[in-house]
Amino acid sequence: MTFVRTHAARLYALAVAVLALVAHFVPELPSALVLGVVAAALGVGEAVHRVTGPAPESAPPAETTVPSEAGE
Predict the structure, then answer these.
(1) Among candidates 58, 57, 50, 37, which has minimal Cα distance to 9?
(2) Prediction pTM value
(3) Measured between alpha carbons, how far is 47 from 42 in angstroms, rounded to an integer?
(4) Cβ atoms of residues 19 and 38 within 8 Å
(5) Tens digit of each residue's pLDDT (9 = 90 or more) over 14-59
(6) What is d(CA 7, CA 15) in angstroms, rounded to the nearest whole number?
């Protein structure tokens, strides 16, 4: 279970990619079924976001210094 919790976003991305490939290459699937699974995937995406938490805020930009030219 810790593997799933640690890599939830990657597993979600993989599952959604497989869903898209199946929906594209299996045209016999009823559209209602595909739309239902897509809606469920969106709900799972929300859960994944809650598990992984918000993205960390970026660090403040480091102070850049321009090296002084030699001879000054």
Answers:
(1) 50
(2) 0.58
(3) 9
(4) yes
(5) 888 888 888 889 889 888 888 888 888 888 887 777 777 666 666 5
(6) 12
